[in-house]
Every structure is written in C-alpha cells, then in structure tokens.
C-alpha cells in the first residue's frame, strides 16, 4: 500500500493486522511472564542471568525453520522486543495501553503487506 493507506490506520485508530497479532501475543506473554499464569507454558521461557533487563528471555537455539516458528522462539523474541519500561508495569491493563500506544507509533514505518499464511 501507499502512505495514504498507512495513515488510514492512524486516522481510524486501529492497528494493522500484524500489529493486532503482536498485541495479542504480547498480552499472552505478559500473563505467562509477569502474572505467572498459564503454568503449562511457564517452563518454555527462561530469563537470562546477565540480561540487560530482569525480564529478558533466553532465545532457544534454532536448528530449523520449524523451530523459528515455534511459540517457544517467537514468544521470547516478541517479549524481548517490547521496551523494558512497558514490560515492567504491574497490571495487564497498563501493559495493553502502553504497548498499543507503542505499536501505533510504529505504523508509519511498517508496511501492512504480508501473506495470510504468516498467521496460520
């Protein structure tokens, strides 16, 4: 799309689909990492001992493209990409509000061109 298409997202106060996917994934990660929810996923993610932020996660070693598409990998990569001041908030509502605002600032620099199969 053109820049006109991209500014449409800002004018309508909606996120492109890719960012909506990121937001939902980030909320899921917040529940696992910060709220200690979804216990069955907790062992998937380990915090680095010498990380720049207490909440940085260790990325698993990638042996194949299939590993790169695993929740264990992309969940940790997504979490680490979120600014630490957003990851450190206490409530899920604060997190959602701050992360959504952060994503809105990134709309102009990203295209919304992707393949539907990126999501399924």
What's a concise summary of this model?
By secondary structure, the protein is mostly helical.
In oligomeric terms, what are we looking at?
single chain
Give the helix/strand class. Answer: mainly alpha
SSE order, one letter for each helix or strand = HHHHHHH
Main sheet overview: none
Shape: globular
Query: What is the strand tally?
Result: 0
Question: What's the N-to-C terminus distance?
Answer: 22 Å
Q: What's the pLDDT, averaged over the residues? A: 81
Q: Specify the helix fraction band.
A: 40-55%
Number of helices: 7
Q: Quote the beta fraction.
A: under 5%
- Low-confidence region ranges: none
Radius of gyration: 15 Å
Commentary on this structure:
The protein is an all-alpha fold and 120 residues long. The protein has helices at 3-12, 17-33, 39-42, 65-68, 71-81, 84-87, 92-106. 54% of the residues lie in helices and 0% in strands.
Topology:
Layout: H1 3-12, H2 17-33, H3 39-42, H4 65-68, H5 71-81, H6 84-87, H7 92-106
Helix pairs in contact: 2-5, 2-7
Labels describing this entry:
single chain, 7 helices, mainly alpha
């Amino acid at each position: 799309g053109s820049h006109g298409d991209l500014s449409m997202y800002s004018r309508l106060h909606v996120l492109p689909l890719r960012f909506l996917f990121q937001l939902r994934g980030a909320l899921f990660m917040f529940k696992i990492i910060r709220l200690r929810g979804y216990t069955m996923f907790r062992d998937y993610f380990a915090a680095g001992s010498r990380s720049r932020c207490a909440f940085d996660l260790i990325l698993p070693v990638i042996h194949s493209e299939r590993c790169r598409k695993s929740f264990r990998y992309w969940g940790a990569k997504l979490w680490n990409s979120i600014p630490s001041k957003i990851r450190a908030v206490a409530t899920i509502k604060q997190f959602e509000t701050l992360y959504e605002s952060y994503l809105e600032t990134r709309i102009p620099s990203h295209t919304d061109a992707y393949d539907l199969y990126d999501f399924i």
